[in-house]
Design brief:
This protein is α+β, with helices and mostly antiparallel strands. The protein has helices spanning 8-26, 41-47, 97-103, 123-128, 177-190, and strands spanning 31-37, 53-58, 68-69, 77-87, 104-115, 133-138, 154-159, 162-167, 200-205, 210-211, 218-224, 228-234. The strands form 2 sheets. Strands 1, 2, 4, 5, 6, 9 and 10 form a 7-stranded mixed β-sheet that branches. Strands 3-12-11-7-8 form a 5-stranded mixed β-sheet, with no helix packed on it. The termini are far apart.
């Protein structure tokens, strides 16, 4: 998977984004990981990019599973149900496939909340704004899924208590988790950053983003079989 760093729009957007990240960290925020956005083939084609875009996450955006979030003042709120990759080792550019596999300590569910407050037409602007990121909800991690083993897992998305989708192929909409982690590591290395042990990478929505309206009260995402679930309520 290409890094897209030969695209000046992406290079400029990433530099602006990482500068904003460093400013937050300097003000006391704690870095917790990274996010992937616009990774579906149709989204990449629309933006004219060769690989998914990468954003950052800090503890300032974390919401505890089951907690309530106010959407007052949001322009176009979206919920994205995602696989969270929990890194167990640092990973740099040029890593072999086995090194990537061995760097992944666990998988788990996640929900990202984004606010599409401007049209997604310019990769530089999207990156500068951290890909519309507002909040992340992380579910429990399953250490038995080290190495990005999905096997018999499927995903169930519910909205207001009703099933929204059941996903048997959790990589169909995002691409392979191993490729995505490799892409994040290579891109960060090119920018003088590093994908580190303890980082969480949320890998893009397993279904098209859910547009939230005034009638929405909850979104939940579970990985089955097992007790791997997270949810968020809205006020």
């Amino acid at each position: 998977m290409a890094t897209s760093l030969d695209d000046p729009r992406i290079e400029r957007g990433l530099r602006a984004q990482l500068a904003a990240r460093q400013k937050l960290i300097g003000a006391g925020a704690r870095a917790i990981g990274w996010k992937i956005g616009f990774g579906a083939p149709a989204a990449m084609a629309k933006l004219g990019i060769a690989a998914p875009l990468i954003g950052f996450m800090t503890d300032r955006s974390v919401v505890v599973s089951g907690a309530a979030v106010s959407l007052a003042g949001w322009s176009k709120p979206l919920a994205e149900t995602e696989i969270a990759v929990h890194m167990g080792r640092d990973l740099g550019s040029g890593a072999s496939r086995s090194e990537v596999v061995n760097s992944i300590a666990a998988l788990g569910p996640a929900i990202e909340l984004a606010d599409l407050d401007a049209p997604p037409t310019d990769p530089e602007a999207i990156l500068s704004g951290n890909i519309y990121h507002r909040h992340v909800i992380l579910g429990p991690r399953d250490d038995r899924r080290a190495g990005a083993i999905l096997d018999d897992w499927s995903g169930r998305v519910s909205r207001n208590g009703n099933e929204e989708a059941h996903v048997s192929d959790l990589e169909a909409n995002t691409g392979l988790l191993l490729d995505l982690v490799t892409h994040v590591a290579a891109t960060l290395s090119a920018e003088g950053e590093r994908l580190r042990a303890g980082d969480v990478v949320i890998c893009g929505s397993v279904i098209p983003p859910i547009e939230l309206g005034d009638q929405d009260r909850e979104v939940a995402f579970s990985l089955e079989p097992g007790e791997w679930a997270c949810s968020v309520r809205f006020t």
